[in-house]
């Protein structure tokens, strides 16, 4: 009954927009390819993390913010439980105010921004942006060094060079950012902000509930009925019309913009819309971005993580065992393919926890180019002195053989 009513509403919107009748090219009936996802076991030890309010990650470091406790996990194992803050409201991974490794921050219920200090608890950092007297309810990285903060009266944009500007006056309800661009929702408008010049551009979108910006700086917005994306002409154009339930979330996670449509997930990647069938999302879940390209969903205090099931096509999820393929590749393989076959599985399983871009090691080893550049270091540290990977992250004999084989050709 509910669904039938909703379909009528969606069709009504379609005719308003002048699109063709029926579901049209922007729905599951046309132009949308099937998306395969899988649930990631982010808590393999079944640690009790409490009633979850928010989550943020950086590679395989995950912080689960719950009532009464923030639980820090490294590659699935709990490394810290901090009980200094009774209530958290939101979380994000944002560029560090000091230019270092990105900060995982939580927002407490007093509206202060607290960053995780390497395994040593949380530090109130609101004052780093002059926001100690503001009640912050949202934070987002803008890609590059900028960040934006949502507070009761508006949005503060930090350009990354120590300059923080408040866009007040208009009540804002939600922010997004990426590719050096910020976005906010204000009363039926989607506002795009350039952090350098503070120039704004406004798009009218009645009923907008969420906005996001992808890595390339393209703006996205959603209403309960549809998802829109900024096109080449700089207009917000319809990209997906909901038919299975209301759109209830939209976030940018490395390389894609995820959205939730009732019980299903969808994503826009490289301009293509893909959507799941049978994902069985929690109905009203709130989406959180992941630095890995995955998406987190918090519903009723329960946290779920979904990954695109790429079956070997690019996305590797740190902490997830990948089936290693250690056979020496036929000599016809390109260096890139050889790396992918011999090294990438080992990397995903053992090294990714520290060596992703922005990872704790400060050395990105996630690409074949990075490994090629460091062949001598890899040989010395991993095979000769054996002090890398550090204790507690063992390499099996087959892993060592794969690395040796790769170094040899
Ligand atoms: C627990 C974190 C951690 C893991 C897991 C880890 N590393 Fe490291 N790695 C580091 C840190 C921190 C450094 C920088 C400090 C140092 O050189 O010891 C580093 C440095 C290196 C270096 C030296 C690079 C340079 O430019 O000096 C190499 C090579 C390296 N790691 C390879 C690997 C490989 C290969 C793996 C997986 C098989 C791995 N590491 C797993 C933390 C880690």
What value does the average pLDDT take?
Answer: 84
What's the CATH class of the largest domain, please? Mainly Beta
Largest sheet: 5 strands, mixed
CATH level-two architecture of the largest domain: 7 Propeller
Overall structural class, as computed from helix and strand content, comes to alpha+beta
Oligomer: single chain
CATH topology of the largest domain: Methylamine Dehydrogenase, Chain H
In total, how many domains does the architecture comprise? 2
Summed up, what is this model?
The protein is of the alpha+beta class and 409 residues long.
How do the helices and strands line up, and which of them pair or pack?
Layout: H1 2-16, E1 32-34, E2 37-39, E3 52-58, E4 61-66, E5 69-74, E6 77-82, E7 88-94, E8 103-108, E9 113-116, E10 122-124, E11 136-141, E12 147-151, E13 154-158, E14 164-167, E15 174-178, E16 181-186, E17 189-193, E18 200-204, E19 210-213, E20 219-222, E21 226-230, E22 236-241, E23 247-253, E24 256-261, E25 264-269, E26 272-275, E27 286-289, E28 295-299, E29 302-308, H2 335-342, H3 344-355, H4 368-373, H5 375-384, H6 397-408
Parallel strand pairs: 1-26
Antiparallel strand pairs: 2-29, 3-4, 4-5, 5-6, 7-8, 8-9, 9-10, 11-12, 12-13, 13-14, 15-16, 16-17, 17-18, 19-20, 20-21, 21-22, 23-24, 24-25, 25-26, 27-28, 28-29
The structure holds heme C.
Protein model, in words:
- The N terminus is likely disordered.
- This protein folds into two domains: 307 residues, YVTN repeat-like/Quinoprotein amine dehydrogenase (Methylamine Dehydrogenase, Chain H, 7 Propeller); 74 residues, no CATH class.
- It is α+β, with helices and mostly antiparallel strands.
- Helix 5 runs antiparallel to helix 6.
- The protein contains six helices and 29 strands.
- The structure holds heme C.
